[in-house]
Fold this protein.
Amino acid sequence: MSSNHETRPALEPIAVVGMACRLPGARSPEELWELLCRGENAISEIPSDRFPIEEVYAPASGVPGKLASKYGGFVSGIDEFDAEFFGISPREAAATDPQHRMVMEVAWEAFEDAGLVLERMPELTGAVFMGVITNDYWDRQSGVLEELDVHTVTGSAKGGNAGRISHALNLTGMSVALDAACSSSLVAVQLAVQSLRAGSCDLAFAGGVNAILTPDHGIGFSQGAMMALDGQCKAFDARANGYVRSEGVGVLVLKTLSRALADGDRIHALIRGAAAGNDGHSDGFMAPQVHGQQAALRAAYRDAGVDPASVAYVEAHGTGTSVGDPVEIAALDGVLGQGRPKDRPLLVGSVKTNLGHTEAAAGVTGLIKTVLCVKNGWLPASLNFTTPNPSIAWDEIRVRVCDRGEVWPQENQPRRAGVSSFGITGTNVHIVVEEPPQTTHPDESREGGDRPMLLPVSARTPGALTALGARYRDLLQTASLQDVAAAAGVRRTHHDQRLAVVAVTAEEAAAKLDAYAANGHAEGVYTGEADELGGANRTAWVFPGQGAQWVGMGRDLLDQEPVFAAAIADCENMMRRYADWSLTAELRADPEASRLTEIDVAQPAIFAVQVALARLWRSWGFEPDAVIGHSMGEVAAAHVAGVLDLDDAARIICGRSRLIRATSGRGAMAAVELSPERAEALIAERGGRAVLAVHNGPASCVLAGAAEEIDAILRDLDAEGVFGRRVQVDIASHSPQMDPLREPLLELLAPLRPRQGDVPLISTVTGRFVDGASMDGAYWVDNLREPVLFADAVQHLAGSGFDTFVEFSPNPLLARAVQQNLRHAGGDGVVVTALTRDTPGRTALLEAAAELYVNGRAVDFSRLQPHRGHHVPLPSYPWQHARYWKDPVRRPGVVRDGGGHPIIGAALTLAPADTLVWDFDLDTERLPYLHHHQVHDMPMLSGTAFHELALAAGEEAYRGRTFAVEDLRIERAVFLTADVPQRLQARLDPAGADHTRRWTCYLADTTGETTEWSPVATALVCSTNSPEEAPWEGRPDLTCYPWTVDVGEHYAALRRRGIQQTGPFQAIVALHRAEAAVAAELRLDASITAGLDRYMFHPALLDAALQPVMALLDDTGGAHHTYLPVRTTRCRAHRRLWAGTRLWSTAVRISPADDPGLVEFDVLVKDDEGRVVASVDGFQIRRLDEDPPEVTERKAARLLYGVEWAELDPLPDPAPGHAPWLVVSDSPVGAELCDSLAAAGGEPLLVQPGAGYRRLDPRRCVLDPASTQDWTMLIKEQTASGAWPPRAVVRLSAPHSGEGATGPEALAGSYEVLTLVKALTSDPQAAPRLWLVTTAAQAPDGIGDVDPTHTAVWGLGRVIPYEHPELRCSLIDLPGNPDSGVLRALSAEIRNDGTETEIALRGGRRYAGRLSRRPLPPARPVPVRPDATYLIAGGCGGVGLLTADWLVRNGARHLVLVGRSGAPESAAEQIAAMRSAGANVHVAAADIASREAVADLLNRIARDMPPLRGVVNSAVVLDDGTLAQLDHARFFAPMSPKVDGSWNLHELTRHLPLDFFLMYSSAASVIGSPGQGNYSAANGYQDGLAWHRQSCGLPALTVNWGQWAATGQVAKANKDLRLNERGFAGFAPAEAQAVLGRLLSSPHAQASVMSFDPTAWTHYFPALRTSSLLRHLVQDESPDASAADLDRAALACLGEEEAGQLIAAYLCRQVAAVVQLPEEKVDPAQRPHRLGLDSLMAVQLRNRIAADLEINVPVAVFLQRRTIGDLATVALAHLRESAVTPHSSDPAGPGR
């Protein structure tokens, strides 16, 4: 086949090595191919979320302003994006064009498809060429000017479609977005081809993107009848009547063919040639031209160097227009149709018939389709072709439409095709595509076999990791593990969240991944998180001494690993000179023939295995930064370090061990759990007959000496409960028994020639780094004789920054000791062991590599398991999409284009009178400066805001005439929150007879069914006869103000008064005062300069002008009282302000100095020229002797919490698994649970209560559950049998029998839990998960009785995670009579090992406890009456007295205050005050824990007082201590008042018609409290008792109180915990009582009242982050709840660590606010740039910190790769420095 077209030598082909797409109906090339082969049509109606189609649709062309077609091709989820993957903040993501976002994700998919990795990008020059036409997202946003910001602009720039790819993939070559209309993406490919051939880049990304978000373009094309009304592209058909718009993105990765082959890339197809041209001048700008298209075609085939007739198929532009189709066919026939046989016509088709016209992405979409065609040898049908277009002479041309799917025509040449794309602006492009060259790969089937492989999987978030693991699992159903694992190592970027599986077969790997996907963890699946700065890790290789040898060690590696075998052979060659046995024969020996029990065989064999393992490890690309050897292991360490050659090392190890053998039978060694100090003391006590031979860890030593002495020591230690065991040797090395060997060893080692070495070696003889050249014979004598200082050496390494340790040993020997030393040194690290007994050698080595990998250590997969070129399509990244979308919404009150006041907007005039009304919302999001004025940590509308609103109303009314605001009165405070705007209305009435107009401001209360309005401020507005010009008063004469006030101290004093002014409200820069006058210089804060002229006088600045009056109060005795403004006699704004204005404020006190309650001032504000800017006469502030009701109510509303029970989906029954379990139970359900676990493949051991430990049978034993000794015996026995630790320990308790039992009997079960916890945590490294299963401890569905003894277990169980997070303690509650369904659910819950930690199972339903904020119950009268008696147990204590006083204030007139010793002297004054208020207060000395005492007291009340109507138990006893410190007596100390006392009061009053029965419990029983396990259990009992009473129809309320500020025993105890700083602040008694008043008349049985910041709390107690109880609360925590500004003065008083933690928490809040992330997603370990912090946001962050902390940290610091914790350290350093160096004064200022 030939044609007459000239060809020329071809330029180098370009290889398509990667491609990805996201198109209508197809999110990948694979899905696109399936769609094409099925002949699917992906056109749909326009989604409703794009634009309101009904407003713009008219089903006809040419209707002005209307869209002729309601159809298109659309990509699903266009509003979604994985912002976290790309490190883009939610704020920026929402402002970013979806085209950018799609391009980033699809480019990454193409990047992965090409097998590229980020780690290699710095070595390459990568270019990007992207076609893009439209900017619809910008068009949607640009009309709302005040919502535009930098991210809106950069996020909509067309160039960003290319630049985003370059940024995300670290591509440093040319990056350009281009617009050639519909041919844009193919122009991009053509430019990429040119760039690659020119050598301008090593690889290129090319493609295009299109998104349809507005109807604009479609409406325009509809006017030209270009749109197909039926939404179908009918290419080349007689019905062709226009095209349909579609969206999508396609990206190709291109390389030159030679580079692709050299890189071993998989090649999808070749681009042989490419050309582009333009029609030039023609009949019409938009009319397609045959000559122009033919010119592009001929140029493309010249460029390709191939005959056009060799092309079998062309993917046409094929839009389906009546004009374009005939022109395109004519051009194709003129160039490609010539010279073809009649039976071999050119086949043409168009993907637009499937997907529509993707415009800027159309060319690349057609190209991807064509690549798939040449690759697969199949031509899918071009749709919608039924009647050939009559304008085309089909019978006369050699072109045919491919209207049915068919096999590629058979030809004796590579499959070859063309792709055309034509732009409406005349640019024509054609690409010549050819099938990829055939490549051959060596047959590795024999090499792979059953060889273990390491499969690494990584992602950027945990959710993505789980999803990606599942994708690999699915892939392994059909792919080879060898191919997948090798490719995953070298052809995927390794992200921070990591997972690794070591397996021999694909089936094994898939099963492990399946288990991981189901449970989030699985045996044999390693997971971890890499530190971003993983290159900073330092690695030490550890070589242990004797003890890890076993018969068969290394045997399989001799056969499987040539490097290992060669090293063993080298060792054997050297050892022949010094030993008379064969190393290889010994390693291959069976147990009967093995001589490893002989020390002179064992030690050289261990040495050889260590050396061979190290050499193999090095061949895999690992290198140490230091080595350390333990005893004999130091010989291998010295050789690996390069200090000893192999001959010297063999001389030492063989000679040393041979000499030691002579001492066999003379000594013994024992490992003991003692500190070295305690061990030395013990040895001294026994006369020094043993020695400390080895110091392995903080509490791990080895003693050496005569056998009888060692055995005697072990017996004594066992009696003390201290662990100890004999080491399996019969020598006493590192002791005086080695002294006789000194001279023979020196003589033997005289020929040694040690060198400096090339790896640092830390000596376990000295505990420090050693010069290798000094390791002569004398050193090796010390190595044998002196103690092994392993702990010192490891701790020294930890202090030197080493955090990675690899133990080269046949079996783990020192790993645990290394971990203990790391913890002791305050460090953290990764410790792995090369081999493990009975684990195949390569498997064990790969498992060690896997553990290193998942912890972020470098693994060179190209050397560990090289990729041989067997290309397997690895799974693409599973995007974790969230919605990011900006729909411009006009908020109420927002003023645009000068259309009203910035706060209140424009006025509405009400007819018929001249009444003006403003309806507006106030919130700190719209007006951020409002957040900077706070009273008692709550944003409050400043009093000056009312001045501004009244002035603004006057300005509207008087229109330029002069006016004043008079008699302004502030009736109540208005508090603000970020998430709930406050709605207000201002009203200006018509002028009255006196020509004044009344102004009133109202606040809306929307909490009820109807909106209630209450006035918050009033004023009179009247015209004045004053001149319009501002009067001139002159600048203040500072000589009249002799005392200078420190500005910092002034604001600190305001904070002590409860007033926090920051940002623009903190505007005073200098302050001077006299006796009754003050003057201040003010600065205008930059944050409020924009739009300043739209205010009469900005509220923040006016507030700052009035603040100096507070400096005159310090001498009045009210230094710590809060003052709030209440009235202003007259206020005027004389002139507007502008940026740069310098202001002065002067104030004179005009009220008497002896009245601190109400203080009045006259204030003038002047500019720098002395002109009066504003005057405020008769400004009054009132002292608050107590919080006003609205403040108290506002504070109280933040305190109420409750546990809600959320129903969850039932858990599936997990796959059977072999694992040991321990079930501790006194209930028949325990045995049933064991049967269920056994049926699922487990090995449960049932532990039942009994008199002492004994084993009944293999699956059952009894013990005393309160005996530590019994538990220790059980655990030792289980450990010895290999069944410890179990997968979990389940403690399942039976329902409590006998309602009347209280005290120690009632809470015996809780004490047994305490004993169990102590036993399980004796070895934290082997601590199993603990499940506490109770019966009727909770009422999740609000019905059924509750057993308070089981609720007490929940109280204790909530403390365990604080003190022992390793137990992962979780609570499950069962109903009183659990059925088989509940038992199945319980078994599934435990076997699934899920993340829920508080669960209740009821009647087939599964509930999870969630602590949530609760709204205050509606206000009702407190149920207190004057003709009744109220008993308060603990009534003479602090909280009890406050409760009594509150009852009196609410009408109670008869009280009985009960205390064990009556009333203390300190209570006399408060009791007298209550009696003065008319109350009869009786004090009773009684112990409520005594039933007889309570009965006697109640009898006396019944006889002598009005009926008892209310009971309060506020009694408390504390004996705090950690769980480990609590013995029997201390555990039960808090029980008597709360358990016995509450039960006695319940029992003896249940027949009385009480209005309330109130128990003061503690928040400790709800959220737990470290060091208060006993107290939490006691309070948990009270909680359960309240629910029990309620189930009996009796009144009951238990309040889980937080901290009453400075009140009671608990508050005093909590000072030690510094709870305020940890998110558990105190609250005022008035706030507590405000909540109590609402609760007492509500139906609640239990409520928590606490000032709780869960984000801060879980920061200090990170174990609680996994608590499902706090899950919703932490997610829902509003930013304002924990974003209080830091106090510089307070920070100055704190230590470095505490101050650093507070600043870190503060910075987390600020970063979260700036990048717009929920606070709980930001922690100090994160790096802001990974959260999307860019330079603009860094400026904002810097400004926030500068305003709050008054320090200036350079912006560049925030853009460095520092963690937030690191930034906190920097900020603290600046803070300390600024405290030492005072701010310099302005030398130009007056009086300076």
Summary: The CA atoms of residues 589 and 827 lie 42 Å apart. The first helix runs from residue 29 to 38.
